[in-house]
Structure formats: structure tokens, C-alpha cells
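Late entry, written up from scratch paper. The run itself happened at the end of the previous shift, but nothing got recorded in the book at the time, so transcribing now.
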Amino acid sequence: MFKKTTFLVVLTTALVFASYGLEYDAENDFTVQKSSDGRSVIITGYAGKNKDIRIPPQIQKKPVTSIGSAAFKGRNISSVIIPDSVTSIESEAFLDNQLTSLTIPNSVTSIGDGAFADNRLTSVTISSSITSIRYAVFLNNQLTSVIIPDGVTSIGGYAFANNQLTSVTIPNSVISIWRCAFANNQLKNVTIPKSVINMGEEVFAFNPIK
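Output as recorded:
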């Protein structure tokens, strides 16, 4: 699917996009991998020292379309801006960091297991293009409320477990909610839409639901 060879891009200066007024992290801070067709790149690692990261939409004049598995895992990152060139975020991509807020752009259509687990997220805006929230994506954070986008059909096991949720909005598009998806939160009332036909065990375990 993708070529296995990785390389560090040699450009040493940060990119400045005048039309947006944003300064992105230097390209050589990122380890990347070419896609199978060579038209885009996947970020596979981060070698920079910044804790507040602006991912460039292009590296080596090719669009950044994917953030690979564990690419930013355990880097002590406190914030990240994901460009709208990105369409996929792979498993554990941002696992074990210090993220407190997050906007996932609407260009993103898939997010892998545990991609943002073990952070300090208090707020998140989820891409409206997502159809499945995978296993443990937001496990072990500090979210107090979340709106599941319309169009999501499945909420994976432990997806929002071990947060501080007092409010959750589940749209009528959801068909399946899997084991412990919202376990160990602060939910007192939850409206489950009639569209849900598959419910795992202990979906709302350890919540003060009356």
C-alpha cells in the first residue's frame, strides 16, 4: 500500500503562508513516507522540539494527507493544528500527550483506534465527515461535553470512557454503540436515539445515571 522507506525532508526553514498568516513547523521536523502513488505524503514521526505544533499542509511540495500510526505518540505536545489536507489519522497518532483542546477538520474521514487517548482534552470538535468513532479514540481525557456529528453510525468500545462527560449528544444516524463507550463519566441523563439497534455491555457503566 505505502512504500516502507522513510526520509527526513531537508528544508530547514518554517513555511510561511501569507494568505493565512500562519507559520508552520519546519518541514525537517517531520519524518514522512510517500503514498503508494507518490502524489502525497504520510507523516510517520516528529523530531522537533515544539510543544505547540502547526502541521504544514504540504511537505516537499506534496500534500500531507495522513498522520501515521503513533506519529506523535508520547511527544509531550500541548496543542496541534491539523491542516485540511489531512484525510486520515491513524491509530495512536497522538496517544499520550498533553493536548487540552482539539479541532479535527472536516477533511478527515477516518480516525484510528486510540488516536487521541491519554491526553488532557477538555473540548473537541469532531470532523463532520467521520462515520465511525473507533475504539478508545478519546479514552482517558477530561472532556465535559461532546457532540457526535450527524452521519456517525458507530461509536466504538471505550471511545469516550474515563472522561468527565456531563453531556453527550448522539445523533439519529448512530446504529451501534459498543462496550463501555461512555463508561466512567459524570452523565446523569442520556437520550439514546431510536436508530440504535446494537448496544454493547456496560456502555454507560459507572455514571450517575438515574
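The radius of gyration is 18 Å.
(Scratch paper discarded after transcription.)
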